[in-house]
Records
---
Amino acid sequence: MNLPDDFVFSQTSLQDYVDCPRRFELRYVLRQRWPAPEVDDMLEFEARMEKGDQFHHLVHQHLAGIAAEKLLASSGDADVRRWFEMYLETGLEDVPEPRRPETTITVPLGEAMVLAKFDLLAVEPGGRALIVDWKTSERLPSAERLAKRLQTIVYRYVLAAGGDAFYGGQPIPPERIEMIYWYADHEGTTRRFPYDARQFAADAAYLEGLANEIATRPAFPLTPDVTRCRFCPYRSLCDRGVQAGRLEEWDDDEDEIDLTTFTLDIDQIAEIEY
């Protein structure tokens, strides 16, 4: 298996591997260009993604100090404006300061590295450490489903393993860490995931096991769950169909950032060396 020397795992790549090892191989090892659209209505799909990007950008600007009134005046899309108004109303409830938007941390994962790019990292000196992730998805996933997602696992683990730069040079106790998903299209409904030392140890073993498995396995089989193939752009390469899945059936709880084109910005990364 030949990953690039500078390859860094993320929740997206690890989720791809867990969902389908063959998809991971095509996307990250072979760097296969996507041969097919994910859904049947790509214009609407791309419009939804663009709205999500616009909302995230507005929140980032607001947290960087730009006045909310100015940002609202600049927003021409009704959905984005509605989401941003909901964020202003409830998005920062009980979120401590200092607040650091768009913060990336990388930490070792066995012989590899893993990164987490947080929408918002709020670490109270000597107190709580919150990870806030803004979601614009139309569907509201269950807490049980989110708890199994690699984003939840990776984000909390990375902060516990590498957040000492934000905590006075000391590791953040896992019990002080909580991850919050905040849903703009559902009146600011949240899904909250506290952490503890026992879960941190379990996550470390699980993630290191995944990284080692990826590095040493001789072949990457197709997922046995063919329902995952409906929205996979590689389905035609695997003889799993050529027709794109219907947009109204698409699970829009997927990550909104495509890390296949993610470029590491060293200035934004708090890199932890061991």
Note: Confidence is low (pLDDT under 50) at residues 254-274.
---
Amino acid sequence: MADTIKCPNCGSNLKFDPESQKLVCDFCGATFDPSLFEDKVTELTADEAQVKAQQPEAPEMETAAPETVQTQPAEEVSTEVSEAIGPSEQAQSGAPDPNQGDQVEFICNACGARVVTDKNTSATFCAFCGSPALVGQRLTNEFKPQYMIPFKVSRKKAEAAFMKWAGGGKWTPFGFVSKQNITKLTGLYVPFWLFNIKSYIDVEASAEDVSYSGEYRTTRYYSVTRKGEVEWKNIPLDGETRIDDKLMEAIEPFEFDKLIPYDYNYIPGFYADRYDQDAQTLAKRATDRGIAGMDAVIKDSIGKKYDHHRITKNRSTITSMAANYALLPVWFMAYKYHNKMYYFAMNGQTGEVAGKVPVSTVKKTGFFFIALAIAAVIARLILGIFMRGIWG
């Protein structure tokens, strides 16, 4: 049975409110601090044997084999992934799961209706009574996040931001910014792996400084070295294949000083997914971002001090890499226009937005003909003035 959090006063279902950071009851109006509720998810079925069968085995921590990655073309950076912490593929499969299909049924404990969800969805809503349903068992064992950031941007603010963002497009189709589309906006806790990367910078470069005095130009040449340790914490990579990676990167950064230990009491009222890509699967992407970070550090350190520089040797290396599993808040919308999918996302903590709006062929065609008509009028006026000048 799908789990919910009940109001201690009236027994109705509670929902998490981003603005107040409280659990609220829509029926009696009561509010509660999420920390007052025990952080324990009720099992979904009464059959103890079935519950145990559904739970995956405890994950085995696995160390990734060393990997060497080089930047191209001139500045070579050898990078070793000495450690990428995350469940192995064997651990991810776990014990046999009776719900092997893409859709799984659960029973709503508010009205008794059957709730059909995707196999990776960890929180949803009952289609009959609207109650939030936590599929809590899916966030246990290796799928239980270590950390989370609760939603801070309310649905009302997210809707207003979408209206402003979509309405600002010059070629946005008529009627696209509508109440019908607004209803598709979904508050989703997206599964992320937060990578902690340590590296050692070791480069040699030749640099030049150019100065002028009257007609003379003076060039000074330098041999430059840079060595030292650099560390990045909480580089977020989403672990959900259905969500566009670039869209998630576009709504960064998150304020990771607001991370809290995972607490399911912040989920009611929102959707949540569990990951289908583990940390080791994402290690290559994390390595690429680490290399890009090292290149940026080198460029910033040398490029800002000298007029010109050229890297002659680059022995910079990623020395270690580890990852933690967290749920991060995202307001998400997927919509179809002329048989093509478009996506909008908003950082549910900071309000940063990203996405792509469709282009209206009607607007573009109309603008073309209006511009053509205006050009014809201007040409006619100029021609009239010219002809009057000739004939006096």
Note: Residues 361-391 form the longest helix (31 residues).
